[in-house]
Amino acid sequence: MALYARGTHAVGHCAKSGRKMLLRNMVEDPFSGLMVDPAWADEKERRVTYPTDDPEALFKPAPDLDSPGETVNIGRLFVVATGVIVPVLRVQYALGNVTVTVA
Question: I need a surface site. Which of 16, 38, 51, 70 has the fewest CB within 10 A?
Protein backbone atom coordinates (compact mmCIF):
# COMPACT_ATOMS: atom_id res chain seq x y z
CA MET A 1 0.00 0.00 0.00
CA ALA A 2 1.36 3.44 -0.97
CA LEU A 3 1.97 6.08 1.64
CA TYR A 4 1.35 9.71 0.92
CA ALA A 5 3.05 12.68 2.55
CA ARG A 6 1.12 14.60 5.16
CA GLY A 7 0.25 18.26 4.53
CA THR A 8 3.13 19.52 6.66
CA HIS A 9 5.72 17.46 4.77
CA ALA A 10 4.29 17.59 1.22
CA VAL A 11 6.70 18.90 -1.42
CA GLY A 12 5.62 20.72 -4.55
CA HIS A 13 7.24 22.29 -7.60
CA CYS A 14 6.64 25.92 -8.53
CA ALA A 15 4.73 26.00 -11.81
CA LYS A 16 6.71 29.03 -13.06
CA SER A 17 10.25 28.61 -11.74
CA GLY A 18 10.35 24.85 -11.16
CA ARG A 19 11.77 25.36 -7.66
CA LYS A 20 11.10 22.52 -5.23
CA MET A 21 9.62 23.70 -1.93
CA LEU A 22 7.11 22.77 0.75
CA LEU A 23 3.54 22.86 -0.51
CA ARG A 24 2.37 24.80 2.55
CA ASN A 25 4.71 27.68 1.60
CA MET A 26 3.38 27.98 -1.94
CA VAL A 27 0.61 30.38 -2.94
CA GLU A 28 -1.99 30.26 -5.67
CA ASP A 29 -1.36 32.61 -8.59
CA PRO A 30 -4.44 34.90 -8.90
CA PHE A 31 -4.52 34.86 -12.73
CA SER A 32 -3.60 31.28 -13.64
CA GLY A 33 -4.66 29.45 -10.47
CA LEU A 34 -1.33 27.54 -10.37
CA MET A 35 0.61 26.91 -7.18
CA VAL A 36 3.78 29.01 -7.32
CA ASP A 37 6.60 30.32 -5.17
CA PRO A 38 5.47 33.56 -3.46
CA ALA A 39 8.29 35.43 -5.20
CA TRP A 40 6.93 34.36 -8.60
CA ALA A 41 3.25 35.12 -7.94
CA ASP A 42 1.75 37.91 -10.02
CA GLU A 43 -0.01 40.62 -8.09
CA LYS A 44 -3.58 41.21 -9.01
CA GLU A 45 -3.87 44.63 -10.63
CA ARG A 46 -6.40 47.14 -9.50
CA ARG A 47 -8.70 47.78 -12.38
CA VAL A 48 -10.81 50.85 -12.87
CA THR A 49 -14.45 50.02 -13.35
CA TYR A 50 -16.77 52.28 -15.28
CA PRO A 51 -20.56 52.24 -15.14
CA THR A 52 -21.95 49.86 -17.72
CA ASP A 53 -25.46 51.27 -17.94
CA ASP A 54 -25.26 54.13 -20.42
CA PRO A 55 -28.79 54.71 -21.70
CA GLU A 56 -29.19 56.13 -25.17
CA ALA A 57 -32.93 56.78 -25.14
CA LEU A 58 -34.65 59.41 -23.03
CA PHE A 59 -37.39 58.38 -20.59
CA LYS A 60 -40.03 60.88 -21.75
CA PRO A 61 -38.59 62.79 -24.69
CA ALA A 62 -40.18 65.98 -25.95
CA PRO A 63 -41.73 65.62 -29.41
CA ASP A 64 -39.84 66.99 -32.38
CA LEU A 65 -42.03 69.87 -33.51
CA ASP A 66 -39.82 70.85 -36.44
CA SER A 67 -40.31 67.71 -38.54
CA PRO A 68 -43.26 67.75 -40.93
CA GLY A 69 -45.45 64.74 -41.57
CA GLU A 70 -44.64 62.41 -44.44
CA THR A 71 -46.53 60.17 -46.84
CA VAL A 72 -45.44 56.65 -47.70
CA ASN A 73 -46.93 54.71 -50.62
CA ILE A 74 -46.88 50.93 -50.33
CA GLY A 75 -47.56 48.87 -53.45
CA ARG A 76 -49.08 50.00 -56.78
CA LEU A 77 -52.34 49.37 -58.56
CA PHE A 78 -52.85 50.00 -62.30
CA VAL A 79 -56.33 51.19 -63.15
CA VAL A 80 -57.11 49.97 -66.68
CA ALA A 81 -59.95 52.37 -67.38
CA THR A 82 -57.89 55.52 -66.75
CA GLY A 83 -54.38 54.12 -67.32
CA VAL A 84 -53.17 55.61 -64.04
CA ILE A 85 -50.99 53.89 -61.44
CA VAL A 86 -52.25 54.53 -57.93
CA PRO A 87 -50.83 53.31 -54.64
CA VAL A 88 -52.56 50.38 -52.97
CA LEU A 89 -51.80 51.61 -49.47
CA ARG A 90 -50.97 55.18 -48.52
CA VAL A 91 -49.77 55.97 -45.01
CA GLN A 92 -49.54 59.57 -43.82
CA TYR A 93 -48.04 60.34 -40.47
CA ALA A 94 -47.36 63.49 -38.53
CA LEU A 95 -46.88 64.35 -34.89
CA GLY A 96 -49.72 62.61 -33.07
CA ASN A 97 -51.63 61.57 -36.22
CA VAL A 98 -51.51 58.50 -38.46
CA THR A 99 -53.80 58.16 -41.47
CA VAL A 100 -54.00 54.95 -43.54
CA THR A 101 -55.77 55.04 -46.89
CA VAL A 102 -56.46 51.85 -48.84
CA ALA A 103 -57.23 52.16 -52.55
Answer: 51
